[in-house]
Design brief:
The structure is a single chain. The protein has 400 residues and is mainly beta. The protein has four domains: 55 residues, no CATH class; 52 residues, TSP-1 type 1 repeat (Single Sheet), CATH 2.20.100; 96 residues, Sandwich (Jelly Rolls), CATH 2.60.120; 83 residues, Jelly Rolls (Sandwich), CATH 2.60.120.290. Helices cover 4% and strands 34% of the residues. The protein is built from two helices and 26 strands. The strands form eight sheets. Strands 10-17-14-19-12 form a five-stranded antiparallel sheet, with no helix packed on it. Strands 11-13-18-15-16 form a five-stranded mixed sheet, with no helix packed on it. A hairpin with a 2-residue loop joins strand 3 and strand 4. The chain is extended, with a radius of gyration of 28 Å. One of its GO terms (cellular component) is extracellular matrix.
Amino acid sequence: CQPVPKPESRVEVCDLNPCPPRWKVTPAGPCSSSCGLGLAVQLVTCVQILHGQEVLQEEHLCPVAEKPLTSVPCIIRTCSYEWSFSEWSECSTSCGNGIQSRQDFCRSSLTHKPVNPLFCRRFPKAIVVRGCSAGPCPEQEGPVSPGAELQPVPPATHPTRAAEHRHKDLDVPLSAGPREQAKPSAGEEGTARRCFLCVCGNLFLNATGIIDMTGVESRDCTVAIGRPLREEISVTVLESSLNCSAGEVLLFSGRMMWRTGCRKLPLSLINSRTNTLIVKQRVVLPGNGVILQYSSRTATRKYYQDCDQQLFGPQGEIVNPVQSPDQRQEVVCRTFITVAPRQRISIRALNTDLGPQGNQTHFNYILVRDVSTMKTVVFHGKQQFLWQSTGSQAEIEFHE
């Protein structure tokens, strides 16, 4: 092109509109596991380039469908040993609700042969018992699952419906017992006292009480009962107007029991075997429901450890270890958290020191379990984290 005159260079502005907001991903943090598959947390933010500068924007301005994952899989090295499991057993019942179990064993990742379980004791282990359903029973709609005792109760030991109506005339709520909710103001107190339909979504902490779940407006109504760790809860169904043929049902669930039913509910006794119990009612026709009477007593069997803790919402602080420095910690200490069914749980690690980031991190870790889904997450090292539940119950285990 030398013989041809070279034109002058020009720069023209082609578009003055700024680029739309986009997702920005920071490098992933440390892996949650020192060996095997783990999770690494990465920070995802919505940013926009304005005048050559990166400006942070609200997340709703970026396309929600294109948002990257905040946790990505990671693996540092293959674990030398790992937990392995047998196939699930058949359901324990031929009809209704039962349980399935499976055997766990420790094996070498190199030879794939079983070894002494001591080699795997530092690693988190998946569940070995789960609920199952074998279909409806021909005569009884909700058979008792292991851990859920159903016993007849003499009618004379419980108040009649007429007596309960007298309580209503006295303007006293039937859902007796403190509920985990904000205290009403002076102007709202009268309305709150007359609110017999506001039991849904509440947590009851009294030793005894009556919960009236009839006439609620919502299709699903869930309540929770909580007591100290050393106690267990018994619930009696005083009355039931559930329409079983329409699919209306009552569900009782706890850490050691699970039962559904509709027919033969009145004057039946359900024992939780633990200190918490969730009752969920599903109705189709407005006005139907059940009236429950609950009480607590000292647990017949010890289902907890001395270092375990029970926390009820709405907020609290968890410090570990809980033993004195001169006491050896040979067991896994747990913290149980239960909030009102209408609420969810957030756990933020303010300060963690589980040892150096190296080959020994698998000896010390924090395991958080979402009770509603039974999914667990493991945190290692000095990782600060924020965990959120899908339900109203969570468990934390502190290993070593």
